[in-house]
Amino acid sequence: MLRMPSLNITDIHECRFLLFDDLHLLWGQAAGAESGKAILVVDGNVLAAHRDRIENAFPDDSVRCFEVPPGEGSKNSDMWNRIIDFAFSGPLRRNTPLIAIGGGVTGDLAGFAASTLMRGLPLFHVPTTLLAMVDSAVGGKTGINHTFGKNTIGTFYHPQAVLFDTAFLETLPQREWLCGLSEVLKYGYISDPELLDKAAALAEPSGRFPERLRLVIERSVRIKSDIVAADAREAGKRAWLNFGHTFGHALETLDNYRNINHGEAVYAGMIAALFVSRHFGHEVSDEPLLELKTNYRLDIDAYTSRVDELVTLMTHDKKNRDQDIRLVLVSGHGKPLIASISDKTLLRDAWIYAFDVLA
Ligand code: ADP
Ligand code: ZN
Questions:
Q1: Is position 158 annotated as part of the catalytic site?
Q2: Tens of pLDDT, residues 269-304
Q3: Given this structure, which CATH class describes domain 7-171?
Q4: Catalytic: which of 14, 55, 234, 291?
Q5: 38-43 and 7-8: which strand pairing?
Q6: Where are the domains of the chain?
Q7: Fold held by 175-207+232-358
Q8: 107-133 burial string, b = 16+ CB within 10 Å, else e?
Q9: Cβ(104) to ligand 1 under 6 A?
Q10: Which of 146, 150, 212, 238 is catalytic?
Q11: pTM: predicted TM-score of the whole model, two decimal places
């Protein structure tokens, strides 16, 4: 495997980013003197598809493994409790490493467990979805869901290292690829326009050349970690990461998280946000997104007649101040800005436009 120098971004709590390393190199980072057996928390699908690689990556008898049933349903207090019980059922010390191997669900859940066990165990992330690599494994957020809402219980807790092994992506289902691609396209619009073409080229398996994939992941990780380092606590710049998300969250909520996944909702949301940007005279194009329309194939038929409900949901978004809607727009490709929008008709029109072009 082509080795690249590890990105060393000490600004965000000395978390090290081991880019494009093989999984077995993680042990050198995680093993410590007298640390007991490391705890692996692994997504069930990932374990099924990569069992040998995972087992061979750690010395005999050096780890014990907790399997997380795949899916968002595992991000709850019951599963958190089970990980805690599992951790205490074997040798556990304050320096026992906890290694999360999986997508965002596993990372958020295991990260929350690591942050709460004995006031914090050393945490290592091995993201196995494109979405987790370019988004959730960077930035130090952990969490579980509650009946009150998604990610309503959680902590800011930085891993000691994040290891990116692209071999995991070989088994990632196509729909999950597109989910991650939405965030890459987002980075293209808010920071690095070159990513727009590069990301689009990854939409189909035939375009997934290793160098292209690595470039896209590395640049995305840099953008997210730079933004997070500049603004670790959710004000200012971190809001840029919400480009397409205020619209997208409304669609996910209306859909009850059933037919449309996060990346698909954000994809539609970015088209709407670009419409609003153009309304204010900014010269920006949604063409890079619309080219991927046949790849995404959004299941929006049930929602095209429910635009008013979407607008109402947007006004309830927790990130809004007062009645106005705070939206991330772009004044050019790679140039984000925050706008306070009071014109509900404009938001309506943006949804109508997005649904129209996606139909
Ligand atoms: P995300 O990373 O998109 O937030 P999840 O953690 O739910 O979300 O992962 C999405 C789905 O992909 C889950 O069904 C998970 O089991 C599966 N998955 C994760 N990584 C891989 C992989 N490398 N190969 C195959 N399936 C994977
Ligand atoms: Zn997102």
A1: no
A2: 999 999 999 999 999 999 999 999 999 999 999 999
A3: alpha beta
A4: 234
A5: unpaired
A6: 7-171, 175-207+232-358
A7: Dehydroquinate synthase-like, alpha domain (1.20.1090)
A8: bbbbbbbbbbbeeebbbbbbbbbbbbb
A9: yes
A10: 238
A11: 0.94
